[in-house]
Design goal:
This protein has helices spanning about 1-30, 35-40, 55-60, 65-95, 100-110, 120-130, 135-140, 150-160, 165-170, 175-185, 190-205, 210-215, 220-230, 235-270. It has about 270 residues and is an all-alpha fold. The protein is globular and about 70 Å long. One of its GO terms (biological process) is transmembrane transport.
Amino acid sequence: MRTRMWTTVRLALVTALALLVLFPFIYALLASFFSAGDFATSPARILPSSWSFRNYQRALSNRHFPTYMLNSLVTGVMSALGRMVIAMLASYALAYFRFAGRKLIFAILALTLFIPGDLLLSGNYLTIQKLGLLDSWLGIISTSLVPASQILMLRQFFLSIPASIRDSAAMDGASDRRYIISILIPISRAVISTLLLQSFVAMFNSYLWPLLVTNRTDMRTVQIGITMLGYAESLDYGPIFAAIVIVLIPFLAVFILMHRRIMASLRQGYMFM
C-alpha cells in the first residue's frame, strides 16, 4: 500500500514537472493564433478568440525570413560538424597519446569552463574584424569551434573504453585514423549524436554573437530576425509567436530522428550541458 502511494506521488510530481517544462511551448503554440486584441485582454487569455493561420502567413510573408532560417540552419550544421571533428581529434590525442604538456593542456581546457563567455566578446570581435570575417558564416561559427566541454567529456568516454580494443586494432595493423573511423565512432555513436544535437541547438539559438558580427540583413540569423519582426509589426506578438513555432520545427525533426541515441546517451550519463 505504501509503495503504491509513493509511486502515485512520484508520478504526480513527474507529470507536474513535465507540464511545467512544456507550458512555454504550449503557450507559444496557442499564442501564435492570437489576434492583437487577444494580447490586450485582462486577465490574460489562454486560448485565442478565434483560430486562424493569419499570423503564420504574416511571419512567412517577411521576405527575409527564409534567409534568416537558412543562415541559422547552415551555421548550426557547420558549427556542430566542426566542433565534433575538433573535439574527436583533440580528445583522442589527450586520451591515448603521451606527450609533454598533455596534463597542462587538460588543465587549461578545464579552466576555460570557468571563464564567462561575455568577457571574451570584445576580444573575439576584434579578432574576427581583423581577419575580415564579419558578415560571414565562418565569422558566426568561428568562436564555437573549440568546445572545451566536449573535448573533456569525450576524453573521459574514450578512457572508459577498454585499452585492449585499441591494442587489438594496433596488432591488426589499424592506423589511428582507421581505429577512429571503424571502431571508435561506432562505439561512441550515442554520445556523438547527443553532442551534435547540443552543438546545433546552441548555435541555432545564439543571439548576441551573430548580432555583433553581422550587419547585413542577408547574413542575420533567425533569432535576430524574430526580434526584427517584432519591431516591424509594432509589437503585435502573434507573428512573433508564429515565427517561434516555425523555428521549433527543425529541433523537433532532429529530436525525432535522433531520439533513440539521445536516450541511450542519457542512460549512460553522458548528457553534458
